[in-house]
Design a protein that fits this description.
single chain; alpha/beta; 46% helix
């Protein structure tokens, strides 16, 4: 018998979990480190289980067996079908499991499970839509560094390119460049070491400097304006008719609202819920389909 539902939003920077009763009553939330599949299948499950344990502690329900829980997961890295299959194969014993991209769980949360479109912008980026006939559409989500336009990692990569040119003396740098250089070690040799160790999450950590200096630094502003155009391009490809409700989601969604072209910004509505809430909608829908069968 299923006593609890779990909704998981797992990305390259962090993991959020929502714990609920099967009737939809939410009991607790918890968070943990990254559980995107690029960090490893074992790491993903370890992180997710730790966050579930914390949520159970917050709800004061002890440590229920996994067989009493049904779990919905929206995870970064699910586009890699091999990783997704390995993750499902390593299921530690949940009563039911449904897995999709963190973009799709974000879409479900943003529009309450109803048709709509989202552009999710955090460590990575992706556009997702569910049409009125139930068809799913995805744009972007190709992963860093080849894709993930407008994301934190994408911005960080451009910030790194800027400081390389500043350190070379090819362009002048201001406070924006100085702060990024300091964050990467403070000098050319330290930046080289940083580059050798950096992953998507590390690049995304530099996006905060782009945002902080957008109003005062020409290069930071250009990065943000470019990001806004990329978001608009994703939104237009998702819904060329512009008839679906559109929401910007993720850690950088609200920030980039100010940098969108005016026509795209006018279409945007606030998201109703987050990706972890969307993952709960996913497992609820999965269980209802099983009941119908």
């Amino acid at each position: 018998m299923i006593e609890y539902l779990i909704g998981v939003d797992g990305g390259g920077t962090g993991t959020r979990v929502r714990l609920a009763h099967p009737n939809g009553e939410e009991l607790a939330q918890a968070s943990a480190g990254p559980s995107g599949l690029s960090h490893g299948i074992a790491n993903a499950w370890t992180t997710i289980l730790a966050a579930i344990g914390e949520a159970c502690a917050v709800a004061d329900i002890g440590s229920p067996p996994l067989s009493s829980m049904a779990i919905g997961l929206g995870l970064a890295g699910v586009h890699n079908k091999d990783w997704a299959a390995q993750f499902v194969a390593a299921d530690p014993g949940f009563a039911a499991l449904v897995l999709d991209t963190d973009g799709f769980s974000t879409l479900m949360g943003a529009h309450g499970g109803a048709p709509g479109a989202i552009v999710a912008i955090g460590t990575g980026s992706v556009g997702e839509a569910m049409l009125r006939d139930g068809t799913k559409v995805e744009v972007g989500g190709w992963g860093f560094p080849a894709g993930d336009e407008a994301s934190g990692a994408w911005m960080g990569l451009r910030a790194l390119n800027h400081i390389e040119q500043v350190l070379d003396g090819r362009v002048e740098g201001g406070a924006f460049a100085r702060e990024v250089i300091e964050a990467c070690g403070g000098n050319r040799d330290a930046v080289q070491i940083w580059l050798g160790r950096a992953n998507q999450t590390a690049y995304a950590s530099l996006a905060r400097f782009v945002v902080q200096h957008g109003a005062s630094d020409r290069t930071a502003r250009a990065i943000l304006e470019h990001a806004g155009r990329e978001v608009a391009s994703i939104a237009d490809a998702l819904d060329p008719s512009h008839t679906l409700p559109l929401a910007l989601c993720g850690g950088l969604g609200e920030v980039l609202l100010d940098w969108l072209p005016s026509a795209t910004r006018a279409r945007c509505l606030p998201p109703q819920g987050d990706s972890a809430r969307g993952a709960l909608y996913m497992i609820e829908g999965h269980l209802k389909k099983k009941e119908v069968r």
